[in-house]
Each structure stands twice: as structure tokens, then as C-alpha cells.
Amino acid sequence: MKAPAFEYHDPTTLAEAIALLCRLENARPLAGGQSLMPMLNMRFVQPDHVVDLNRIAELSGIRVLPDGALEIGAMTRQRDIERDARVAQACPLMVEALAQVGHRQTRNRGTIGGSLCHMDPAAELPLVCAAVDAVVRIAGPGGEREIPFAEFPLGYMTPAVGPDELLVGLHVPAAPKGQGHAFLEFARRHGDFAIVAVAVLLDPGPDGRVARASVALGGVGPAPLRLAEAEALLRGTAVEDDAIARALATTASLDPMEDALVPGWYRRHLAGVLLGRALGIARERMA
Amino acid sequence: MTRIVGRDVKRIEDPALLRGRGRFVDDIAPPGLLHVAFLRSPHAHAAILSVDCSAARAMPGVHAVLSYADIAPLLAEPRLRVALPSPAYRQTLDRPILAMDEVVHVGEPVAIVVATDRAIAEDAAALIEVEYDLLDPVADAVAALEPDAPRAHRTAPHNLLAEFTLAYGDVDAAFAAAPHVLRESLDQHRGGSHSMECRGCVAIPDAVEDRLTLWSSTQTPHVARRMLCDMLGLAEDRIRVATPDVGGGFGPKLVFYPEDAAVAVAARLLKCPVKWIEDRREHFVATTQERDQRWDVEIAFDDTGRILGVRGEVIHDHGAYTARGINVAYGAVSAMPLAYVVPAYAMRCRSAVTNKVPVTPVRGAGQPQGVFAMERLLDAAARKLGLDRAEIRRRNLVPGDAMPYATPLRTRGGMQVVLDSGDYPRCLQAALDRAEWDGFAARQAAARAQGRYLGIGLANYVEGTGRGPYEHVSVRIEASGRIFVATGAAAMGQSTHTMLAQIVAEQLGFDMANIEVVAGDTAAAPLGLGGFNSRQAVLAGTSAHVAALKVRERVLRVAATLLEAAEADLEIEGRAVQVKGVPAMRVTLAEVARAAAGLPGFSIPGGAGPGLAASEEVVIDPMSYANGSCVAEVEVDEATGAVTLRRISFVHDCGRALHPRIVDGQVLGGIAHGIGNALYEWMGYDEQAQPVTTTLAEYLLVTSTEMPAEISIGHIESPTPLNPLGIKGVGESGVIPVAAAIASAIEDALSPFNVHITRVPVMPQHLVAQISPEAVR
Amino acid sequence: MSERRITLAVNGQRHDITVPVRRSLADALRQDCGLTGTHLGCEHGVCGACTVLVDGRSARACLMLAVQAENLAITTVEGLAPDAAMLHPLQQAFANNHALQCGFCTPGMLTTLVELLAENPSPSAAEVRVAISGNLCRCTGYETIVAATLEAAAVMRGEAA
Predict the structure, then answer these.
(1) In what order do the strands lie in the sheet with B274-277?
(2) Interface of A with B in 128-147 (CB under 8 A)
(3) Which alpha helices (H) appear in B20-140, and where do they start and end?
(4) What is the domain partition of chain B in residue ranges?
(5) How many domains does chain A have?
(6) Contact C131/A104, CB-based, under 8 Å?
(7) Given C45, C64, C67, which is nearest A8 (Cβ)?
(8) DSSP, res B192
(9) Which fold does the domain C3-79 belong to in CATH?
(10) At B229, phi and psi to the nearest 5?
């Protein structure tokens, strides 16, 4: 189980990396390696060139903007985000989710950008980004572009990043005051990819009722799924039990993925169970 | 009183392992080493039309690419003739060294590639062109026995590998007269072994002496040597098989594999050292497993819950070849009634050939399945009668005062099963006490009032340990005074070196640092059977004990002459023999050894004959029967189906414990494995017999976070009369009752929903499907 | 085939080696540096046997290329004990508690736990369990490893074991 032969490139600047990606055929960027390296070892992917992003200092780091929002470099290690007090302040949902991303050893190397670009349908970080309406920055030969995270997934494990482009960072809006959040997942073992994961944000309005709700599911569709109908049903409510029940009813129409290990009906069932619990937790945390 | 045996002395294996200085098979790298990758079948069943290795051979760095046609002329015997004898066989399906003209499971080796490094060997393997003609696969053992099923081997008359019935008493009469009869249909699955170290071997030819050394991560080096000699047509003294540190075995490493033979052939052909290290994906498709058994069983019992008879049928998934024998099926069926007084028993068992990896024992070797079937029936009977589940077992366990208890059962070697010692009801009671069984109903009710579902369950087992007939051990004190112990037993993590050193040190000076143990090396031990069936402490331990006593006697005889003292007044202390209580009057073991070695023209002091050495193969035919009781307490999330283990209480009796901490370690490891079998480990295949769980992210091994919050282990020591140390085996005990106890506990937790457990592993979706059937759509 | 000449700093020692660029750090440590204490159990990042410390942080050596490790300080199991006579407190506690049987997972357990105790000198049993949840062991059932870690933590805090 050894990687196939490839040429290795380790640029130190973003411009250099983009230039390499433009020039080289069948090249794969290598971020933290926690997904790409196993796929290389198993020869699921056989690139002719690997462009290592680990020596590009400008791609990592966390910055807080004047409005409290976060700018997170794509190559920032998951463990560094998990332990950053500023992230806990601005996006507690992300910190709660990170504790369930793999294991310490994988979070020490794994990056947020790598996770977003790998885009496993059950991965935690894409789900968080979907829930918080993150904006991603993508650099290419023509410069940088920004797109809302909702437009980032193009399909199953397919991010909107061209072969000569790189995800360079993301913008995470600051959690508004009083926001209730919850991240729950069901996995067979601690650290496994979730079978189903749920992220919930409840923003209170001046009347204490929900002004904005964000409900996102992982492990159900090919990419994180926002439940617009459930969000609409929660708006204007005080998240009473019957409001939760109405929101949960929307999961009945889900048509989840099915594989040899987990039947689709069970994912749908879990979506309802976890969403109910997450709404209960977020309600308690909403102030 | 003993000073070393029975004590928690320091393990002699630990210092090197803790510093990263162990020597596992992949750590062996002689100069000029070449590396192997195998091309394996991607199909469950296909005819091979052609194999073209030309492009692979042309790749730089490649030294050889061999298919069956290339390798056959170098062999005296192209198949691995391994099956243990049994009249139950209906056909012979020995594995070929490489696929001949048909592949019968995904992962079957088709060609061997030897190159300067493993990555290049894998590059070249991808260039081998094999033309296959796909054939219908047999993906399921039950379906395999249908008359119109496709054949797993295209020329075979049917898919029935073996058939036998284990029976005694008039079971039909017992059922006809019984007031109560209950029936269960059980689907039992166990996965693979997944030792953390996969398999591997390094073959090192010696051109000067025309010998071959095979370093192999095996549990049975002597069997491996015999197989290699048969296949290569060589005398035994041409081949040495030696085991380095082995990173876990758990059963499948007792099997000799095609890869071992192919690597040995390649090394002889290329005249240089050749290494193959199995990677984890290969382990999933090429190392033997246990997998599936279907049990249709019935129990007959009276109004008091007494068992009148048990009968039924088992269909066992044998896999595509016979890699060992029928022992998993036989072990399962014979374990079923063992703990209880079952007056009449009839179990018919059929082994079905499927297009999957061959099945051989994994820790427990069928016994967990037999216990699961028995315990499921007892739970059902208790429910029917409204009896406490512990009480129905109390009424049926073989009583302590019946020991030794001659059962009507026979081993597959034809010997009568005699339960030699133990007090099963007392053991059960001890486990119940530890688990606070009596107070559980109140705890359960309190939790249910909060909407939480707690459950408790139990299981008993009796395990045949110490399969004979013998194990070789030699003990020798050399001229330096150091003590050398060599054995045919094989170490794979169970502290075999420490165990033997303890037993020998007890007789020869109590200094374990003065003892060197060589295990699992055909060059050091002329005979050996190896490590399996919880046997080595019993067989090798006994031989070591007897050999050490003989050497001790000789040491004292020589020393008595040298010290001009009576033997009875002497003691061996450290590296010297001294007059008891008078350390000044002493002679070192080195001096004794030199004297015993003799001088030209002088007689040997004490007249005891030359040298300080003894070899033993103490023969112990009957097995010693260990037993135990396990109580599991669980909490089930009724919405998700998640099972959380709260507590496992385990009381067992393996006779005298040579090293209590090591015994605990064996039991704990077995419990973890049993938890995996109960809840997590599933080696899945689809309808085309394609494996669907081929990574450790898909095949779930238990990790630290899934272990119970509390594990409590208790010991009862009923020494066996069958060996002088009174020991029984323990290596497999922990795994045997765990799945049964957990299933019982889950059923108890979910009794408000009438959940019925008939399959393992218990997956959360199975529970939800019973709790909320409306969710399944 | 693409190769690179690199220098690895392992356990405070320089290793000047030439490796194929596709070679994993684990393979380079084992084959090129002669440090075979780092074991490979799955090569897909799940079992944890190959865990080493990279600049003090635990990482899967099967999921790094050797060429990526230049200029980073690597610690393997061979580098944990202070000298030939003394064991690291964790190693000693592993021996005391029978926290290893076959020893194959042990190097990855030790490196993972060295990082944990550096970060959290007083972990709870539950925290130890989470810390090693990415390290598979088939022999011990983990209980003795947790006990050993708590004992080592106490020793390292200067409390009697």
C-alpha cells in the first residue's frame, strides 16, 4: 500500500503554487494530507504531480476583522482553530464540531481548507461552513474570487475549485449576540465520520423570538444540506416544542444516500432525532 | 509457596518493546533485500484465460514476476495440503500456491512481483494483464447449499464442504415429551483477527549450505516448516522457520499461507533475501476470517426450567478453500451445551463453500457462537416461564460437586470430554454479586422513570483449553551459568517468554534476568505445535516445569559433590547453589555447569551424567476446561439505537494463575474483542461476494472510547488435576461470553419494545427497526 | 523516478538521506534512518501505530511524505527514554501496569500520550480515553493503558505513583 510515483513540488508562495497548477497536467494540491495521503497510499488517486501547500506561510492563520468576523487561512491546522479563543468567541459552533473531527493526531496536521475541498458528505467542517454562511476565497491565475459557501459544493465530493485554482481562505461571520448553537453527530465510534450530523443556529430578534434560523444536515445528501423549510418554520417562534415538531416533520421528505453499511431510512430517522435534540440544545443556549 | 510463579513479576518482553527496539518481521532487513507485492484477484469467481507479465517484467527495478505457470516447475507440491483429518469432509479444497486457472475469492494471489522496493513492486503488479472470464459467485453460505446454487468452484459437484452431526441421548424423544419447546433462528457473524501487525515474512537463502531461513509472523513455525518442505521437496534440515516478535496473532496467523510459500520460492530462485509485508487492505481480503453462521435451534425444557434437550442445524460459511479444517464449526457446536446439563443433544452442521476468504479460527474459534446460541435459548426459556435469567442458569449449570464430570461429548480427535474441575454455579454467583444483579431491577426502574433504558444480561461459558498432545521445551544451563530455554511454542504477545522464564526460574534460582527464552524457532526446538487454542501455558508450561525439575536435580547432585554437602541441604539462589542459610558455602551455576560438562579422564561429579540440560514433551491428551460468567450492563438510546456499555463484570476460572496481571490482560483483551463482535465488527460482502469493508474506517475495531465505563474481573482458582501446575488456558476466554451477555442486556433494556436479538453484531439500525418499525421505509 | 536528498532531524540527530519523493515519513524513518520502532498497521491513517511527534505534536507518519519533514523536529519512540538506563515515566508506567502485550501499537500510544501529558498534566480517565481513541490496540482492551497514563501523569507531577 504505497503511493504511486509522482513529481513533488513545494512552492513557498501562493503565486508560485498557482503557476505550478496552471503549468502542470494532472496535479493535486496537498494540504494537511489526512485525506489525500490515504487515497495516494491506496492508489485511489494517481496524480503525476503533487503540489505541497505546507510551505506557503501566507495560507495559514486566523484574523479577526473589526466586525468580529473571522478570516481563516485555508492551510490553518484544525487543531489550531479548535484551540483558538477567538474562534470560540466568534464561532462556537466550529469549535464544538472540531472536537468530533477525526482524532488529535489528524487534527494536528489536517487543515480546514483540506477538509472543505475533500468535502466528504458527512464531514463536520463543510457542514459548519454551510450553517454559518461562510464565504470562501478562491485564487486562480486571474486573481481571487469570493463565493458564498452555498455555491461551493458542485456535487458529491466536488468543490467549486478549478484544476488551476486553490481555496485560500474563508470568511466566517461573527455569531450575533445571543445566538444559540448546537452541533450534534451520530457516529459509531468517537472520531469517525458521522453517519448523520446536524448544525443548528438560532439568532434571537429583539422580541426574543427567532429572527434567523440555520439548520444544516451532513451525511444525508451528497454535500451539506440546508433545510430552508425547517428554517422558515422556526422563524418567528420561540422554539416551542410544537415549533420543533413542525421543523422535524420536514425531515420526513428527505431522500438520503444509501450504502452497504447504512440504509437510507436510518439516516433519515437519525436526521430527525438529532435535529430535535440540537434544536433543544440551541434553544437553551439562545439568550 | 512459590516466589516467581503466581506473582506479578516484570515481563521480560517489555524493555525492548517500550524503547522501540523490538524486532518484528518488517524490521528485518538483510543486505540485498528485495520486496514483494502480490497481484490479487479483483473478482470473487472467474476463470483465468491468460496472464501476461511482460510489461511488468520490463519495468526498471523489477527482478521477477511469477504466475502459477512460472512457479509450478519449481515445486514438488503446488497445493497447501493443510486440512486436519476428519470423516466429515465431502470434498477437498486445498489452496494452490498461486491461482491456477480459476480464482475463487477477491484477494486470491495470482502473481508475485519482486522488486527493489515495495512501491515499485506495486507499480509493476498494476501492469500485469490478466484476462478473466467471470463466473457466478456464491456470496452466502445458506444460499450456497440450495440445489440450484452456482458452484463456488466450477468443477465441484456441490458447495457442501463437510457435514457432521454431534449428538447424544434420544433427543427426539426428549422433545416429544417436553412441556415446552422454543425455537430461535440466529445469524451470527464474527469478523477477522486484525492483529495490529499484519502478516509477513522474509525468506533468506544461504547458497553456501543450500538452506533457507524464513522469518515469519506466524503462530505455528513448525507447521510452516513442514509445509515448505513438502512444497519445495526439501528435507527438514534445509529449512528453518523462525518467528521474530509477533504483533498479535488472534488465530489467523496459525495458518500457513500461499504467500509464505511463494516468497520462499522467489528467494530460492533469485538467490537473495525477499520480503513480503501484508498491508491492511490485503489483510481484509487474504487473511482468514470467521464470518457467518446460521443457527436454527430448539430447546426443550420442563416447567421448572430444566433443560430436556437441545437440537438444531448450523450452516457454516467455510469460505473458498480449506485452510485449516472444520474446527470452527466443530468448536461452535461442541461449545454450545458444555456449561450445562443437557440430557439430549443433536446438532447437525454443514459447512458451505462460498467465494470468500477461507474461514479458520479467530480468538474463540467458534465457541462464542455456540455460547451465544445456548444463552439465547435460555433467555427465551426464562422469559416463557417468567423465571429470573440467572435462576434458570443456576438450575442447569453443571454443579460443582459433579466434578470431574464426564460429558457424553467427544472432541474432534475422538476423546471424551471430561470437565476436569471448577464450580460453575459459584462462578456465576460471583459475577452476579460483582454486577449487583439483585439490585438492578431498582436501578432499571429509576432510569426508566427518567426515560432512560438500562438493561442487564449474562452468559456462561466453558472453554476447552490446552489442546494437546504436547509442546516441546528444553532447559539448559551453559558454562557461563546462563539458562537457555527453547520451545516450539510461539509468542505473539501473550507473554510466553515471561511465562516460561517464571516456571524455570522458580526451580533454578529465581533470577529471571539469568534466563533467555527462544520461542518459535525450528532451529532451537526439534518439535513444536505452536500457539493456538489457549494451549501454551498448559503444554509448554508443563514441559518447562518438568524439564526445569530435571535440570535442578542434576544441578543439586553435582553441587552436592562439589560442596561436599547433602543435596537436601542445598538451595539454588540466584546464580549459585548454596548450603541453605549459609551463603558463604556456595558454588556458582557456572562452576556447576563446567563441572557437569566434564574433563577428559575425570568422572563427572555426582555421577549424574554430563551436562545440565533436559528436553521435555510432556503429553497431555485431555483438555482442561476453563469456565467463566459474564454480566453486561448497557444503556440503549431508544431513538438512535446506540448502545453504551456501562459495566462488564467477569468472573472466570483458569485454574492456577501463573501471573495474575497477565491473566487479567488476556481476559481484558478478550472482552474488548467480544465487544467488537457484539456491536461493531462486520466483514461485509455484497451479492457479488465483493468485500465492502476493506479499510479500518469501514471495519470498526473497538477503540478506548467504546469500552465500558467499568470492567470488573474476578478469579476463582480451581486447579486442574491434568497437569502438575494446575493451570488451564486463558487466551481466548474473555471473548467467548461477551456477545451473548450484551445481547441479553440489550434485550432487557428494550423489553418495553419487545426487541428480540437474533443476530450479531447488533447494529443501531437493527434496534431502531424493531423499536420504530414505521421509520423503515 | 523522482528522488530528493533531505535531512531529517530525528530525536535530536541529523539523518542525511536520499528518498523517493513518494516515500512516507514512516517508511523513511524505518528504512532510511534505521528507526524501526515506528510501526505501520494500516497506512491509511486509522490505526495510529505510526504516530510520531512533529515539532512536539502527534501526527500519523504514514500520512506525511518524508520530504515534508525537512526542517521539522521529529520524535519517535526511540527518542522518549532519557538514556539507556532510565525509561520515560510513561514507558515505566506501561511496564508497571501491563499496558502492552504484543507491543506493536505501543510506540504510537506512547507518542500520543507524551503530547497529551505535555498539554494536560492532570488528565481525567475520560480525557485519556479520548486522547487514544485514534490508536487501535487489539491486545489490551485499553484499560491498562489508561491506568498507566494516569500513573505516569502523577509521577510527572511529582506525586508518588
Answers:
(1) B62-67, B109-115, B34-40, B274-277, B200-206, B211-216, B239-242
(2) none
(3) 54-57, 68-71, 118-125
(4) 397-406+416-465+623-775, 468-616
(5) 3
(6) yes
(7) C67
(8) -
(9) Ubiquitin-like (UB roll) (3.10.20)
(10) -60, -45
Could you tell me if B291 and B326 are in contact, meaning their C-beta atoms sit under 8 angstroms apart? no
Report the SS3 class of residue B319.
strand
* B468-616, CATH topology level: Aldehyde Oxidoreductase; domain 4 (3.30.365)
* Interface residues of chain B, partner chain A, Cβ below 8 Å: 118-119, 122-123, 126, 279-282, 639-640, 642, 680, 682, 684, 686, 692-693, 695, 697-698, 700, 702-703, 705-706, 764-765, 768, 772, 775-777
Written out in words, the top-level CATH class of the domain with range B397-406+416-465+623-775 is alpha beta
Right CATH for C89-156 from 1.10.150.120, 1.20.1250.20, 3.40.630.30, 1.10.1040.10: 1.10.150.120
Sheet arrangement for strand B710-715 = B453-465, B624-636, B643-653, B710-715
Q: Is the pTM of this model over 0.95?
A: yes
Residues 29-58 of chain A with CB under 8 A from chain B are: 42-43
| CB-CB under 8 Å, C100 with B17 | yes
Q: Which residues constitute the domain of residue A273?
A: 180-285
Write down which chains contact chain B via at least 3 CB pairs under 8 A.
Answer: A, C
User: Above pLDDT 90, what percent of chain B?
Assistant: 94
Dist CA C88 CA C53 (whole Å) = 15
Q: What integer pLDDT is reported at residue B83 of this predicted model?
A: 63
Residues A157 and A72 occupy one common structural domain = yes
What pLDDT digit, counting tens, does each position of A261-274 carry?
A: 999 999 999 999 99
Give, for B245, the enclosing helix (H) or strand (E). Answer: none
- pLDDT cut 70: percent of chain B above it: 100
Are the C-beta atoms of residues B363 and B330 closer than 8 Å to each other?
no
Among A139, A172, A205, the domain-final residue is: A172
Under a CB-based contact definition with an 8 Å cutoff, are residues B635 and B702 in contact? no
Which residue of B9, B10, B17, B492 is the best one to mutate when testing the C interface, meaning the one whose CB has the most C CBs within 10 A? B17
Give the tens place of pLDDT for each residue, B177-235.
999 999 999 999 999 999 999 999 999 999 898 999 999 999 999 999 999 999 999 99
CB contact under 8 A, C63 and A33: yes
Residues A187 and A280 in one domain: yes
Q: Do B703 and A190 touch (CB under 8 A)?
A: yes
Residue A2 in domain: no
Q: Which residues pair with B570 in a beta bridge?
A: B579
Distance CA B465, CA B753 (A): 40
Q: Are residues A159 and A193 in the same domain?
A: no
Residue B409 · residue B464 · CB < 8 Å: no
Q: Do B18 and C78 touch (CB under 8 A)?
A: no
Residue A56 lies in a domain: no
Three-state DSSP class for residue B721: coil
CA distance A261 to chain B (A): 8
Burial of B641 (0-12, 13-18, 19+ CB in 10 A): buried
**How far apart (Å, rounded) are the C-alpha atoms in residues A77 and A167?**
14
Residue range A141-153: average pLDDT? 97
d(CA B583, CA B587): 9
In chain C, CATH 3.10.20.30 sits at 3-79
- List every span in chain C annotated with CATH 1.10.150.120: 89-156
Write the pLDDT tens digit of every residue in B468-490. Answer: 999 999 999 999 999 999 999 99
Confidence of residue B639 (pLDDT cuts 50, 70, 90): very high
Closest chain B C-alpha to C29 CA, distance in angstroms: 11
Q: Closest Cα of chain A to C140: distance in Å?
A: 18
A36 and A69 within one domain = no
